[in-house]
Amino acid sequence: MAAPPCALDGVRVLDLSRILSGPWATQTLADMGAEVIKVEKPGAGDDTRGWGPPFLPGADGAQGDAAYYLAANRNKRAITVDFTHPEGAALVRTLAAQSHVFVENFRTGGLAKYGLDYGSLSAINPALVYCSITGFGQDGPYAQRAGYDYLVQAMGGLMSITGQPEGAPGGEPMKVGVAVADLFTGMYAVTGILAALRHAERTGEGQHIDIALLDCQAAMLANQAMNWFASGTAPTRLGNAHPNIAPYQVFQTLDGHIVLAVGNDGQFRAFCKAASLDAMADDPRFAANPARVAHREALTAAIATAMAARTSAQWIAALDAVGVPCGPINTVDQVFADPHVQARGLAHTMHRSDGGEVTLVASPLRLARTPPRTDHAPPLLGADTEAVLRDLAGLDDIALARLRAAGAI
């Protein structure tokens, strides 16, 4: 049977990004069917190919690509072009002239000297959607600074609200366990690119998209930013508690821990009944969420005593039966062993061009008519250089050999 169409069939993306935020964006576009051509430095490639251990074994048993690289580069074609070489830059311009989207995450203004900035490329392709991803944006006093996820989690306020409270054991600002500033920036980039593509389809007019990690991190503060705007009081670290809802945190059970996530007063009453804490449901200190937040310490102490009397499995069964949200704190291996995760097909195995296999987290997108594709494993360095340059740049064997000898590819 023929494969179903993909939403971005016919869209070509020239991807000069590396590390995580840009590759995450272009991987998402590739999952939706875009032809993504990943441009890497000859002999080295994306830095994350070496960000290990762990590494995937190569076909010959040698060290292969790092797991970090594999997480963000499926469904792409990989070419090696040195755009710091004049002929390499000319090749990139040739490819950009035939592309719909150009993605880069070099330091602000860094590509201008190679003729690969938005002004240069839009002159040869006016419909081009050009997305620049940087730490701090194209303007402002920090525009020339290098930006990294960890730094932006700190500067963007996330670490100030993550971790145990001040004065508690281990009470220091804490980063999140994955690079969320990079990942959300990648997803904001996808949203901007799709909006700009829609505009280009209607008008033939491309545009420059300026995406900054710090901007995205500030936007991600969401309710915590609004807590500051509304109250004039900066939020602080609450450990595993929630600033606006209670009880909504981790509790210790007889044999471990679970998360209890009571989102409304009806769920609280159901929890009290299941926990044999009926009197708490009518206590004016706890009957409504604002009161529970105000009396969080007393509420938490009473619940903690009750929770310690049963096992995690007993609590999950009892609370699930009455519609109270709760769940275990799974390790990563437990996540992918979970029957629901398996039923949703969130892990899948792909075959690489060297004959090796790699298991990846599947795209979470579920599109009934245009589902994501799963046909290309993360490519080996330069795997598609000759094919792409033959097809799109019209090069023959002699031209390719000359460019290789010159170090341009």
Brief sketch in words of this structure:
The protein has 409 residues and is α/β, with parallel strands linked by helices. It has two domains: 12-220 and 342-406, Rossmann fold (3-Layer(aba) Sandwich); 248-329, 2-Layer Sandwich (formyl-coa transferase, domain 3), CATH 3.30.1540.
What is the radius of gyration computed over CA atoms, rounded to a whole number of angstroms? Answer: 25 Å
Number of β-strand runs: 13
Roughly what is the average pLDDT, rounded to an integer? 96
In CATH, the topology of the largest domain is named Rossmann fold
How would the global form be characterised?
elongated
Distance between the termini: 38 Å
Biggest sheet architecture: 6 strands, parallel
Provide the CATH architecture of the largest domain.
3-Layer(aba) Sandwich
User: Number of helix segments?
Assistant: 17
CATH secondary-structure class of the largest domain: Alpha Beta
Helix fraction by DSSP (H/I, runs of at least 4): 25-40%
Spatial order of strands in the largest sheet: 5-2-1-6-7-8
By CATH, the superfamily of the largest domain comes out as Crotonobetainyl-coa:carnitine coa-transferase, domain 1
Which stretches are poorly predicted, pLDDT < 50 over at least 5 residues? Answer: none
Instruction: Assess the beta-strand content as a share of residues.
Output: 5-15%
Total domains: 2
